[in-house]
Amino acid sequence: MTNAQLDLTVKTLGPRTLASPLGLSTERGDDVADYIRDEVRVLSAIEFSAGDEGKTLPSPQIPSFEKAGPRERIYFDPKKVTAAIVTCGGLCPGLNSVIRSMVMELHHGYGVRRILGVRYGYEGLNPAVGLAPLELEPKSVESIHRHGGSVLGSSRGAQEPAVMVDYLVEREIDVLFTLGGDGTQRGAHQIQQEIERRGLKIAVVGVPKTIDNDIAFVDQTFGFDTAVETARTVLDGAHVEAHGARNGLGIVKLMGRDAGFIAAHASLASGEVNFCLVPEVDFELDGEQGLFACLERRLRARSHALVVVAEGCARTIARRLGKSDERDASGNLRFGADGLDVGTYLRDAVKAHFKAKGVPLAVKYIDPSYTIRSVPPTATDEIFCNRLARNAVHAAMAGKTDVLIGRMHGVFTHAPLAVVTGQNKVIDPDRELWLSVLRSTGQPLMRSTEGRASSRPD
Known about the structure:
It is built from 13 helices and 17 strands. By secondary structure, the chain is an alpha/beta fold. The strands form four sheets. A nine-stranded mixed β-sheet has the order 3-4-17-16-10-9-6-7-8, with helices on both faces. A four-stranded parallel β-sheet has the order 12-13-11-14, with helices on both faces. A two-stranded antiparallel ribbon has the order 1-15. The radius of gyration is 24 Å and the shape is elongated.
């Protein structure tokens, strides 16, 4: 199915019969009013050919998404609403900020008084696990955005949708906000399908949380800016360490299971990286154009080097070694299992190669992954989290469901969960981002044309 054929219709629970309590202006015209009409769309592409005769490209060829924002009329009566928030998957900068902003918008904007925080991911929606929810209110969340992690806790792995919906019904929960990545949102879609099968009126609204920034049809996920900024500091320190030793080599492993956006952006931000390895671009270790030979030439010329490798490059190593594809509770490959930690593998392989050559080498290996995940958000991410959270609340109160709050070209959107969970966003080796990395590092391709990654939009 092509992008133009995607069903981008946003589901709603029913007619919106209540006036919004937000009291926003409607006097300046529909196209600039504070309230958003459902008919307003955001194009997925802002570049297109006008054609030989100056005619615009037919609009059906460019998929568009419903614009997010407050609606003039809402579905839920705020005085009767119970909302619940759950955070799933790995930690990410900004989780507490999203939670806080949701509580503030629900409480101060709409007057919702019963807000529950589900403990430790989807496990908290399984009564058998025995995790009572937290009662959330402005006072209890007033300073949580200053801290990393999630005050609700998190976990990986799925629970039975029927069991989780039973929990929602028992607790009389009307709205469920799911903060998480692709696996979390697949789970949210399954919850919504079970809700729909039972004919219930419960809204499920997702907020994209993945530090890897690899969710389709979303230009950026919260925490990514913080991750890049923190990673740049690490890279700068690794460069200093490498530069201070004869034949000094810094190797830094960064997050990125399927997409190398953090590695690529941090490399560009630092400007000190000599070799950036990402999952989307195959590379060789041996041979005249392999990494080892490139490092030899670099060290002979400059006596120091800095290598950045994304964790997903473990797949390249696994294929060569015939290693297993053991997965965690979320279905992700366990890159630390069976010798598949690409950082330590690369460190040891480089040491062995240069030792065999009789060349002294001072290797400084750094894996800052969990440190990066746990820091508070930058100011840019803090503002981004606030806007994502408030748009999620607007969508839920309007009765939108089975939907993810995304952002395209700086505009917030409603994207159906079934669409965004069907594919991942990755770096395209032929597009501007990766070409910028190649120019910044000066690295050769280190791969044959037959081994290049398939082109997908970055």
